[in-house]
Design brief:
Number of domains: 1
Number of helices: 5
CATH topology: NADH Oxidase
Strand order of the largest sheet: 1-4-3-2-5-7-6
Oligomer: single chain
Strand content: 15-25%
Number of strands: 7
Bound molecules: flavin mononucleotide
CATH architecture: 3-Layer(aba) Sandwich
Helix content: 25-40%
Radius of gyration: 19 Å
CATH class: Alpha Beta
Length: 202
């Protein structure tokens, strides 16, 4: 009897811990040793690009670095972007076909918010080119006064990283705000502010 009880308990615990592991995805540390154009050259070539190659996925290292440049913690112990009073009021979500994920910079991991494919909700104004991008960042903030400034710093960092890696990206202000608010389970008072699809060009 005891044996059956403890075996079932063990199996239950394993199932629960596997389920919660599936809800988290560890990210890699950024690689600071990569060769790249200089900062001046990157600013010189930064641009918006709207054609994404749907056949070319983004690997985990690249995704990890995209998130880190957007809103990771840097060598100062603070964020890669400045924030008002260092309150760090911004969140970055990742949309992929396999669901919606919230970037947890402290744990350097993605945490699943939903299994729903929310990418179609980023289409607006007839801009269905976004459907070809493998990775979509959604920036949110609860800071009514400064949130958009935080987002601007983050998307510019991502633009520069994209320029260094030959990635295509464009920041967008057009999307289905209500549907994204719902599927991202954004807390009350937090605003969905910008969308940034990222992929490789053709
Ligand atoms: C706040 C903001 C919102 C934007 N929204 C869109 C958008 O919804 N769709 C789009 O294709 N581009 C959008 N853009 C990108 C601009 O069109 C682009 O930055 C501009 O044409 C200049 O091109 P460049 O980024 O290559 O310098 C947006 C840019 C900003 C800063």
């Amino acid at each position: 009897m005891n044996k059956i009880f403890y075996t079932s308990l063990f199996v239950g615990v394993m199932l629960i811990s596997n389920a919660s592991a599936a809800m988290k995805e560890k990210l890699n540390k950024p690689d600071f040793t990569q060769e790249s154009l200089s900062l001046m050259e990157l600013i010189n070539v930064r641009h918006s690009e709207r054609a994404f190659n749907p056949q070319r996925p983004i690997d985990n290292q690249t995704l990890s670095e995209i998130l880190w440049v957007a809103f990771g913690f840097n060598a100062t112990g603070k964020r890669t972007i400045p924030t008002a009073r260092n309150e760090q009021k911004m969140n970055v979500y990742v949309l992929r076909k396999n669901g919606v994920w919230l970037y947890n910079a402290k744990e350097n991991q993605l945490e699943k918010v939903s299994d729903e494919n929310a990418i179609p909700f980023t289409v607006a104004g007839g801009q269905d080119f976004v459907l070809n991008a493998p990775i979509h960042l959604i920036y949110t903030s609860s800071d009514e006064r400064f949130g958009e400034m935080h987002v601007g710093s983050a998307y510019q960092n991502v633009y520069l990283y994209a320029a260094s890696k030959g990635l295509a990206t464009v920041v967008r202000g057009m999307f289905d705000r209500d549907e994204l608010h719902r599927v991202l389970r954004v807390p009350n008072g937090e605003m969905v502010l910008a969308h940034q699809p990222i992929g490789y060009p053709y």
